[in-house]
């Protein structure tokens, strides 16, 4: 039979294999799919299930094909055999001692031996490892060089997941675009902002969430927001010297652009998206004429973890995980905002999310933004996780209608107005690369950063609150609560009501 399978046939094979995980595996060399076939399988899965693609639910031949097409780079999550409830305890473990260290050492030794046994060639730990371990989370970035090594280790009791870390399905992912934008708008419509003292611009859509009314009692003081994205531009003075007012600003970089180097390229934005999101959430209220952020007196940590909005390369997954660990360990951070994601799940990022969540952080994630003709995708990863709060963008007016490029679905928790109903190009406003002239920005990304800012306003009314208390106040002030919509969650948060 021809190996040029239709998308429907491919996804049927995928789903059938998922249902038959207990079927004994053969030792024959598995079928390998080329890139076009594998991407067709992913596309068909997304269309038929409306769910992100999870490598751990895929059969060996699919995973091996992806490894073969991405320099054999894999990520292995481990735990001592029999360890219980790691998702809830991942922030408590010590990978450098006891059963954890023993399990790690046994896995490395066995991987080296299995690779030599199946390939006929001996390798060293230097050859095996793709990236150094962080000493905090139980993750190994390694090379898997033979399909039988993959099959053997996927079924071990001490292996939580073993998945491709660097496979990018360009035909699928690039439809969303990179999200990069740095230039100010040529002109801003007069109706798209109001001016407040001492001369700051308030984006038009803030009125739908009653944000200015909430400012009469809270501006986010003493609450730490962490934006995990593409960094911030050093040229944007509002996120540098003008940030001020006794607030704390940290600009960090954990993204490693080169596979052959462990060096990061610093905190500076090279995309624009991170600057835009930081501006929406926490830009200061100044006399420069630039836009003001929702929580304009909150503290800000802006971490460059990705090159753009898609968490697809292994270096981006590691960057996001490292940023989540930083946020999780920082006592001054209460809220994390991630307007980034992918149609593939990632064990690396999941571990980072759970680490930060278990340490009390309230994590907001974008539900997804795509070109209008591919926005049939459901909620993307990691917004689809139970540990995150998923946000999407809607248009102004009634009834509720998602923005033209926004994703929706059952995992969505909140929405925010991001787009004029009769003009797709008139979205929210935020900081540009430099200067005071703002730029337009929309999608679920902007909705997420805006809602994270509202959370900071709510938390600042009583800094001793728990994450759960803040989230409950937001729910009770949302437009659909106590009902929950199948696509738009609790609805849009009224910041004025939530902060009372």
Write a concise synopsis of the structure shown.
With 500 residues, this protein is α/β, with parallel strands linked by helices. It has helices at residues 7-19, 35-49, 60-68, 86-89, 98-119, 125-128, 147-154, 170-173, 211-214, 273-282, 314-329, 347-358, 443-460, 467-476, 495-498, and strands at residues 73-78, 139-143, 159-164, 193-196, 200-203, 224-229, 249-253, 299-304, 335-338, 362-366, 389-395, 412-420, 423-430, 439-441. The protein has three domains: 1-69, no CATH class; 73-167, no CATH class; 175-498, Peptidase S8/S53 domain (Rossmann fold).
Give Rg in angstroms. 23 Å
SSE run? HHHEHHHEHEHEEHEEHEHEHEEEEEHHH
Q: How many domains make up the 3D coordinates?
A: 3
- The amount of beta strand, in percent, is 15-25%
Strand tally is: 14
Strand order across the largest sheet: 7-8-6-9-10-11-12-13-14
The helix count comes to 15
Category from helices, strands and their pairing: alpha/beta
Mean pLDDT: 91
Helix fraction by DSSP (H/I, runs of at least 4): 25-40%
SSE map:
Blueprint: H1 7-19, H2 35-49, H3 60-68, E1 73-78, H4 86-89, H5 98-119, H6 125-128, E2 139-143, H7 147-154, E3 159-164, H8 170-173, E4 193-196, E5 200-203, H9 211-214, E6 224-229, E7 249-253, H10 273-282, E8 299-304, H11 314-329, E9 335-338, H12 347-358, E10 362-366, E11 389-395, E12 412-420, E13 423-430, E14 439-441, H13 443-460, H14 467-476, H15 495-498
Parallel strand pairs: 6-8, 6-9, 7-8, 9-10, 10-11, 11-12
Antiparallel strand pairs: 1-2, 1-3, 4-5, 12-13, 13-14
